[in-house]
Amino acid sequence: MSNREADLQFEYMEKASAFVDELANTLGRIPTACVVTFGCQMNARDSEKLSGILKKIGYELIDSENADFVIYNTCTVRDNANQKVYGRLGVLNGYKKKNPHMKIALCGCMMQETSAVERIRESYHFVDLIFGTHNIYKFAELIYTMFVSDSMVVDIVDGNDKIVEELPTERKYPFKSGVNIMYGCNNFCTYCIVPYVRGREKSREPGDIIREIEKLSKDGVTEIMLLGQNVNSYGRGLSGGITFAQLLSEVERIDGIRRIRFMTSHPKDLSEELISVMAGSDKICRHLHLPLQAGSDRILKAMNRNYSKEKYIALAARIKDRIPDISITTDIMVGFPGETDKDVDETIDVVRKVQFDNAFTFIYSKRNGTPAAAMENQVEENVVKENFDRVLKCVQETARMRAKRFEGRTMEALVEGVNENDSTLVTGRLSNNMLVHFEGSNELIGRYVKVSLDECKGFYYLGRKVF
Ligand code: SF4
Q1: What are the DSSP calls for 20-57, one per residue?
Q2: I want to staple 197 with a disulfide (CB 3.0 to 4.6 A). Which of 16, 29, 112, 273 is the partner?
Q3: Residue 374 DSSP label
């Protein structure tokens, strides 16, 4: 942890807040800010850090993008995420024309792509600030630079070893929080842009992680999600010699933490030690997200995934054998270059054999700069669409059947909020990550309650609080 850097950023927060105060005087009200998150849990956690700093320097956080400061925390895993950002920037420009004090900022993975930054510099002159994934800790300093500058501020760095913690964060939920345990990825799956935009893997020191969770626990957090692109390789490169399973055991000992989740696991690095720790734990949630991506050995090899279909199936079987009530979910990609109908049959075969509780199925998106983008055998769109539908159908059938197995059982749910569509209901999350809706009011939010899962509705339950 770099304390000197954190101190410096606190100084910039003071300087930036003077500008926000001045703006408040001009506007005759508290200036508003809106943080918009695209993409994964890592980005969601980063957005909490951005929100914390905005609040600290005097902005009021709101959900509307018609605000005095709007920041898009972007994702670039799929091309349509990039297109969405360009489209929405047009809307922001409309707001800015009516509010000349408005500032617009962009950060996150998409900003690590040179072509995206060039396009914004050339065609989106109304953007005030651009930065990437490696210098998010400098947000206060960048805001200050933006306030004193007449032109677009762009600060993109290619890599950075600094891990700066202890800056303000504004959590979305008071009772649960993500905790970064590592940054970046070394795996270079051939379709994936993450190692290029997030940089090489680096683990945080276990002592820093534990201290952060202890602090969160004192602050009322009971559920934590340990975050990393590949948590199973946590600890590599640290001098103390610690594995992810050992880190989990240490986290388990922290008073006040009742639930532990983690994301994401690479099948090639999932150890027997981890399965044992999970099996013996009361706190580690009964949910494992284990991205499959494809079922054909030929495609898995071309993807550089480093496991075979049989190895994946055997691993899932061992996990279910040791932890019978676990829910296994996955990611499946359809349409990787060279994928044939027969390859997709192999993927469907894995879905049938493993019986996933749910799967995020998506179409391969060509990302410039990755090895897969340069492969000549890109699959035609109509073929991909047909295969996608076949996989999705099988995934949905399997998931419905799997969800049924808990119907009628009583389980513990952590109540996350009032139901969005029916205010007489609250929504709780089960240890296996499924949702249950049941009668209740907002005083249950953040509490653990026993719920009878009366009716399975496919991907969620309708239930009843049990006294
Ligand atoms: S493990 Fe593969 S898919 Fe996941 S972030 Fe790393 S390179 Fe991308």
Answers
A1: HHHHHHHHTS--EEEEEE-SSHHHHHHHHHHHHHHHHT
A2: 112
A3: G
- Residues at CB less than 6 angstroms from ligand 1: 185, 187-189, 192, 194-195, 229-230, 266
| Neighbouring-strand partners of residue 426 | 418, 438
Q: For residue 259, what are the domain limits?
A: 173-264
Encoding tokens for residue 305? 């995934």
Report the candidate in 340, 330, 337, 344 with the shortest Cα–Cα distance to residue 388.
Answer: 344
Please indicate, yes or no, whether residues 151 and 209 belong to a single structural domain of this protein. no
Does residue 85 sit within a domain? Answer: yes
| CATH number of the domain to which 249 belongs | 3.30.750.210
CA of 192 to the centre of ligand 1 (A): 6
Q: Are 200 and 159 in contact (CB under 8 A)?
A: yes
pTM of the full structure: 0.89
Atom 8 of ligand 1 has which residue's CA nearest to it?
A: 192
Residue range 44-102, pLDDT digits in tens: 989 999 999 999 999 999 999 999 999 999 998 888 888 899 999 999 999 999 999 99
Average pLDDT score over the chain: 94
Same domain membership, residue 301 and residue 207: no
d(CA 13, CA 59): 12
Q: Is residue 343 part of a domain?
A: yes
Q: Using CA positions, which residue lies closest to atom 4 of ligand 1?
A: 229
Q: For residue 451, give the CATH number of its domain.
A: 2.40.50.140
**Token pair for 194:** 């993450």
